Amino acid sequence: MSTFDRRRINGPEESYPPLFEDGHDVGDAYANWKVGEPRQRRSAGDVRPIFMKPGLINQANGSAYVETEKTKLVCAVYGPRQSRNTAYSERGRLNVEVKFTPFSCTKRRAPIRDAEDRSVAVQIHQAILPSVRLELLPKSTVDVFITIIENDGLESCYASGAVAASAALADAGIEMLGLVTSCSSSMVGKEIWLDPTEREISLAKGSLVLACMPALGIVTSVWQSGEVKPVEAIECMEACQERCADIHAIVSEALLANAKVI
Amino acid sequence: MASISLSKSEKSYIQTSLTSTPPIRGDGRSLLDYRPIALEIGVVPLANGSVRLNIGKSTHEGAGGTEVLAAVKLEVEDVVNGDGVDGGRVVCSVSCSPAAYPHLSSNALDDLSYDMTTVLNQTLAHPSLRPSNLGILPKKKSWGLHLDLIVLADSGNVFDALFMAARAALWDTKVPVTRVVEYQAKKGGAVRQDDMDVEQESGLDTRQVSRAVDFELPDYWDEGETLAGQDRWPVCVTLNIVSPIYYLDATLQEEASTPLRLLLALSFPKTEAPTLKASRLLGPGEVELSQIKALVQDGEKHAGELFAALEAKLREEDVRRNQKARDRFILR
Lengths: 262, 332
Hints:
The structure holds 2 protein chains of 2 kinds. Chain A is 27% helix and 28% strand. By secondary structure, chain A is of the alpha+beta class. In chain A, the strands form 2 sheets. A 5-stranded mixed β-sheet of chain A has the order 1-2-3-5-4. A 4-stranded antiparallel β-sheet of chain A has the order 7-6-8-9, sandwiched between helices. Chain A starts with 50 loop residues before the first strand and ends with a helix. By secondary structure, chain B is α+β, with helices and mostly antiparallel strands. Chain B folds into 2 domains: 8-178 and 217-331, 2-Layer Sandwich (Ribosomal Protein S5, domain 2); 179-216, no CATH class. Helix content of chain B is 30%, strand content 27%. In chain B, the strands form 4 sheets. In chain B, strands 1, 2, 3, 4, 5 and 6 form a 6-stranded mixed β-sheet that branches. Classes of the chains: A alpha+beta, B alpha+beta. At the A-B interface, α1, β8, β9 and α4 of A face α2, β14, β15, β16 and α6 of B.
C-alpha cells in the first residue's frame, strides 16, 4: 500500500466502525420518518444555533472557532507573508487547506491527506475568494488552515468553513470587501430545510450551499448537487440568502466583542 | 483555473470586444454560438461504452479544439467484503493529459484533474442518478461502473465537453446480461448439480431470503442490454459571465479574461420536467442573486438545445454502429 505511513503506529490493516443494533441509537429522530412528514426538532426554515469565537489561536494572525451542534471546526489564518516561490505575481495568493481530524467521522479517517479534503478546500476557497482584496497584496500569500474537529455532513462543512475562514481573515486584519457568510439547504419532499444535518441530507433529494456577502448583496459561491428543479434551486438560494443576513449579524457581533476585549 | 497567462491589455481587449454592441469574438461567433462539436461512439474496443468528443476542431486543418476521451468499464464488485454497494454504483474519474496542459507542473495537474473529478463524481455518482440495472445478486454482488475520462487537449470549455462525453459514453454502455443461479437440495437427497434453478421462477416470493449463490452469463446475441436511465444523464452548460453579458463556449483566451463562470448541469427526463443536477460558481468575479436567477433560466434553455442536439447525434451514431454495420455485413 503506497499510503502507508511508517512514522505512525498504524492500526490493524482492516477495521470496521461499530454497528449498533436497531433502536440502540435513540438520537435518530428520523427512524420512522416518511417523506411528507414535517422536520423533526426544528422547523424547516430554522438553522442550528451557532457559537463563534474569534482569536483563540494565539500564534496565528487570525483565527476563529465555529460550532453548530455537531459541526465543529477551527480556522487559522497566517499572513500575508512572502510567497515561497520566486515567480512574481501581481495579485496575492489565497491558499486554503482543510484537514479532517481522524476522529471527526463515524468511520476513522486516516491522517493522510485524502480526496475529500481538497474538495472542501476548493469550495471554501471559492466562497471567500471574491471577498479578499488580493490586489493589495502583491508577491504575498495568505494561508488559511481549517481543521474539522467534528463532521456532520459535507454541506455543513462547506457553510461553516466559509463563515469561519471569513471571520478569521477579518480577525487577522486582512482587507476584505465584506464578510462572507454561508448557509446550506436541502430539498426534502417539497420543503426546503435550511442547515441540514448529515442524517437529513440522506433523506433529501438534493442540496444547495450558498455563500454571499450580505452587506453588498453579492453572491460568492453556489454549490448544488442532487436533483433539484430550477425553480426550487432559486427558492433555496433566496431562503439561504435571507438566513445569511442573520448569520452575518452573529459573526459581526462576535468579531466586535472580541475586538473590545483586546 | 487552468488557463494560459494573458497580458492585462489582451484581457481588457477581449473583455471590451465581448461587451461592445454588437459583441465581437475572435472567431466571429455570436455570444451564444458553440463551436462545431464532433463525436464518435464505440471507439475503445475493450470498454463497455466509449466516446471520443471534440469541440472546435478547425475544419480546414483538422486539428485543434478541446478533445475528451471517455470510456466505461464494468466490474463485478462484492457487496459484503468489497467496495460494492447493493444495487451497483457509479464512479467517475478525470485525468488530464500533460500534453493538454504543458505549462502546469505535475502537482498542479493532479489538483486540476482532481477538481474536475470532484465535479463529475458529485453529479453523476449521486444516488438519484443510479441506473436500475446494475444489480447482480441482491445484497451480494453488483456491477461497479467506472467512468474514466481523459482530457487530451484543452482549448476552452472543458466542463461542457466532459459532461457531454460522459453522457455519450453512458448512453453507449451495454451491461452484460446476468442470470441468477441457485442450488436446491432434493427432498431427502444429496445436492446435485442439475437441480439448478433460475431466479425468475421463485424470485417473486419475498418471504424467503434469496438463496441465490452465484450468477452466470447467458449467451446473448448483443454485448448486453443498454444501461437504464439513458435519458437522465445530464448535460452541462458553462455560462461565462462578463457583467452585464454572458456567453457560451469560451476559448482558452476568452476563459482567461472572464472573471466568473456558472456551471449548470441539467437533465431532461422524457416524462418529467427538467431538473438541475449540479451548479457551481467558479472564479473571483461578482454576481447578484437576481442575475443568477436570470442566468439559471437562460441556462435551462441553452442546456435544452444542447441536449436535443446531442440526443439526435447519439441516435444517428446508434444507427451507424448497428443498422448500417449489419447491412454491410449482409452485402458482403
